Amino acid sequence: MEHLIFNDELLTFLQSSPTPFHATSSMRRSLEAEGFTELSEEDDWVIEEGGKYFVTRNESSLIAFTTPQLNFSQTGWRMIGAHTDSPCLKLKPNAQVDRFGYHQLGVQVYGGVLLHTWLDRDLSIAGRITLKTKAGDIVSRLIDFKDPIAVVPNLAIHLNRQANEGFSVNPQEEMLPILCGADNEFDLHKLLTMQLQKQYPDLSVESVLDFELSLYDTQPPALVGLHKEYICSARLDNLLSCFVGLQALLSDPSAQPSLLICTDHEEIGSLSACGANGPFLDDVLRRLTPNPEQYVQGIQRSMMVSADNAHALHPNYASKHDANHAPAINKGAVIKVNANQRYATNSETASVYRDIAAQENYEVQCFVVRSDMGCGSTIGPITSGEIGVPTIDIGLPTFGMHSIRELAGSEDAYGLYKVLARFTQREKLMTR
């Protein structure tokens, strides 16, 4: 029963988080409900023993941490890392396009989108708008149209006889969603202003100055399969890991200082002020341990679990896997290994994770990409390389990664949550 409740809450989180901004806002609400105190990077921090805190950057990245003890140089941190962004279509600044009797939107491809999966879907728009109020203030607000207001229609097979033999999609010409016919009046800035006024009735909007908006599929996440064995949803990569990590941090009062970091921009390399290849985590940890020597001591007594989805063996494409490293859905999280450091796992961090998983009777799988194929990466090597923390890369087995609808196991997430919750309680990681 517990895992059913867990999955219901997961589906709610996925549905309420169409963009990294909304995912961060969703996590903020959960943390506040559990008594976490929000910190501002602009203020002085007063951190107390037994405290629970969180801080956001750019409204799209978040760090939450607990401080049962304040001697971080001796205890280290139990860290869980994930990312808030997913591949998608984002609106261009001058997004309004009028062609051949239709009002459309110009879009940019964000990350490694599986483009053809976005065709013939019921799409909506969400994200952040920055505006000027009638009082002269510049402020930002999140919006979400929620209703399906756009679609990218496919081309009929009669006009593309090679469609089932494989075809490419031109993102400049063929991925522009249709909003309405040209007979209807349409002005994007007026539309955004109306949506702001709908969501924020007390907001006095002078003008929309700029926006960061994304398209998303309105079909809600669901448990699917004959026995509801699978979770089918947009943005499982990597909101699934964000949710699991958050619940682990919120589980029981941590015996050890524990930290969750969920950063934006992983899908495009993480190099930003709020990305894993930026200074966010280092800035926070150095404020908590300002002495340089104690900072290094604390990092070396820490461990990071970098959680990001893994490729399950697809029964229709089995040849894409190494036969000895072919994870199955609902058979446990996957330890990801790569000799070229595309993943940060080493024998020590893997052993600590295996030991914790064994205490929970949770299965462990392993993934290594075929030696004749390229390998993706995660925030794991970036974080480990930036601050020097011992790190393991893990992930829940997934089909259709970077599709508009991805598929994972309905049993895997709860099992990983229990392992990560135990990880936050772990006093000794390794004996040196």
TrEMBL record:
Q: Which cofactor does it need?
A: Zn(2+)
State the InterPro entries in the record.
Answer: Peptidase_M18 (IPR001948), Peptidase_M18_dom2 (IPR023358)
EC number(s) for this protein?
3.4.11.-
* Swiss-Prot/TrEMBL keywords: Aminopeptidase, Hydrolase, Metal-binding, Metalloprotease, Protease, Zinc
Q: Please give one Gene Ontology molecular function term for this protein.
A: aminopeptidase activity
> Quick check: keyword Metal-binding in the entry?
yes
Q: Which domain of life is it from?
A: Bacteria
Q: Which family does it belong to?
A: Belongs to the peptidase M18 family.
Q: Which NCBIfam families match?
A: PRK02813.1 (NF002759)
Q: Spell out the protein name for this chain.
A: M18 family aminopeptidase
